[in-house]
Design brief:
- Keywords: ATP-binding, Helicase, Hydrolase, Nucleotide-binding.
- One of its GO terms (cellular component) is cytosol.
- One of its GO terms (molecular function) is hydrolase activity.
- This is DNA helicase.
- It comes from Salinispora arenicola.
- This protein is of the alpha/beta class.
- It folds into 4 domains: 167 residues, no CATH class; 255 residues, 3-Layer(aba) Sandwich (Rossmann fold), CATH 3.40.50.300; 79 residues, no CATH class; 148 residues, Rossmann fold (3-Layer(aba) Sandwich).
- 45% of the residues lie in helices and 18% in strands.
- It contains 28 helices and 23 strands.
- The protein has a 6-stranded mixed sheet, with helices on both faces. The chain has a 6-stranded parallel sheet with strand order 9-8-14-15-7-16.
- A hairpin with a 5-residue loop joins strand 1 and strand 2.
- Helix 13 crosses helix 14.
- The longest helix has 38 residues.
- It is globular and about 100 Å long.
- Adenosine-5'-triphosphate binds next to helix 4 and helix 6.
Length: 680
Amino acid sequence: MPADHTAALDVERAHMAASRAALHAMREHAEAMYAIGAKIAGDPFSAETLGVALARRVAELADDPRTPLFFGRLDLDGAPEPGGESLTGRYHIGRRHVTDQLGEPLVLDWRAPVSRAFYQASVRDPQGVRTRRRFGFAGGDLTSFEDERLGQGEEFGTASRILIEEIERPRVGPMRDIVATIQPEQDELVRADLDTSICVQGAPGTGKTAVGLHRAAYLLYLHRERLRRTGVLILGPNQAFLSYISAVLPALGELEVRQSTLEGLIGRVPVSSADPVETEIVKHDSRMATVLHRALWSRLGRAESPIQVSDGAYRWRIDPGVLTRLVDDTRREKPAYLLGRERVRARVVGLLQRQAETRSGESPGEPWQRRMGKAKPVVEFLDACWPAMTPQSLVFELLSDPAALTRAAEGILTEAECRALLWPKPSRTVRSARWSSADLVLLDEAAGLLERETSLHHVIIDEAQDLSPMQCRAVARRTTHGSITLLGDLAQGTAPWAATDWVDSLRHLGKPDASVVPLTTGFRVPEAVVALANQLLPALAVNVPPAVSLRSEGSLVIRQADDLAAEVIAELDATRSLPGSVGVIAAHRHLDAVRAALAAAGEEPAELDTPTSSRVTVLPATLAKGLEYDHVIVVEPADIVDAEPRGLHRLYVVLTRAVTRLTVLHTRTLPEALTLATQG
Ligand SMILES: Nc1ncnc2c1ncn2[C@@H]1O[C@H](COP(=O)(O)OP(=O)(O)OP(=O)(O)O)[C@@H](O)[C@H]1O
């Protein structure tokens, strides 16, 4: 390193030390506030609220010695601020604001408006940036830097050595944040307005998950109070994936974002049975929404007899014609079902009240109204003409009563589809029903008809290509007044109902106008593997742009084996001296044999979502989505393809988990698409 470079780095290190000391002081100050918070708050409720806020502040100010406090610097030369003013001076950009005792900024949060230029400025549009400096680091220490003098036409783009080093870094443990190296096209998505819904179609490893997580952090920074009340939610495909991404937001100082699977979000009953796939397909079809709607609303009836009710002093009467009109009028207002029932009850009481007023000249009080609302004749009328329902009772009836299902599904489902829906041996009562995971979407749809969901402000949905129409509707019900970020790759759709076009998903999600933005630069998969994966694309029958890889390093080996287990062990031995994680991915039927071979060879592989120090993880192909390993060993691809109807898509997912080295081991003939790809 040249001497002037070394000297400059020393200055930066000193700034880092000063920033760390200042952060420490900020935290001590917050801790002191926390200690006296209870005393200064006037009442227990404010003490509690203040205590929670201060405790959060203390936690947010934690310093992680393994990461540097800043990773970039901007020298500004009259940059126009969003407000129109010009900014000059020097700003270090990091994971959070750090200020000195006088409140002067030592580090600017990466989400602050000024920091945008760090990600977006270019020679063509310098945004007032004279020099952009990026730092290389090891642990929390600065090791190098790289300057781009934009004013002098100097710009590295994806050739930045520091970016390359970052993406070539061996992967260990859970996912990391990418805040130091967010690319301009990713930054556009991260910083999109809160009210804008977007759909990101991105090839494997293009940073969709990373973009989603950073977008959550960005939105929370900009709209902290609003979002604290109404929430940001991240939806992922399974627990293994959620645990893989769980460290990213805390590393960015965001500790309170809810991350869930869709089942976790909508599950209102335990899942204790499984459906055959043809049944699941019908249950996830959007036509079920119409069937449920019809089944529910067809329960409204005409009043056959009058309500005759006594309040102890007098008897009142409402004629059937009036009651039927009341039901019809309320229905026309399109309320949620249970709200409608209560409206009818209130209107009946209103009619009784008017009769009482006419007779006595006085209005009966609230206790009288409540009593009349619960009077037996009123309840009997409601139960006959607008019966109370629960999600479970509605779905139970449809799945157990052929006549009820036929009535509700006529002209919507075929006879075969109805047969697929009906339980072969229905439980005797709703309470003893054994629900499947596909039933959860039906129950949620039913619940949405009965009562409106409260809307979240923003939902980020990862691996969204696998959402069924009914699952999309479940999300839509929770974002009626909010926005969504949809992240996915049509080529990776493995569910039987996987989307083949984003237009339909967006329609079911209630955001038909969201724009679909492609991401095509891959940061994970090496060139050789991307080339192989791209050649599978025609066989996947989806229209997506192929990926380009930023990683030229990396290897691909496809090897015929006699003994798969022995080959896996040999391959593991070959990777022993290399840094980074290893994922052995196979169809379910091979897992026991692979695990036994590993045990015999003295390897103790990690289980998914249990953090261990083991470098090797053995996992089924069905859980590989969204994950990555430096070295991936794929066992018997033909069995992965054969295991499910969209097995080739599954294979595409599995092949694209590799960061550095992909080894495919097979005894059977390779799937045809892969053979063509290797020849091509
Ligand atoms: N700008 C970036 N700088 C450095 N690393 C990045 C960048 N963008 C993405 N990465 C890294 O690339 C890898 C893939 O990112 P990510 O998992 O977000 O991709 P994805 O599009 O969600 O992939 P998949 O479709 O396979 O789920 C991760 O290790 C991520 O940290």
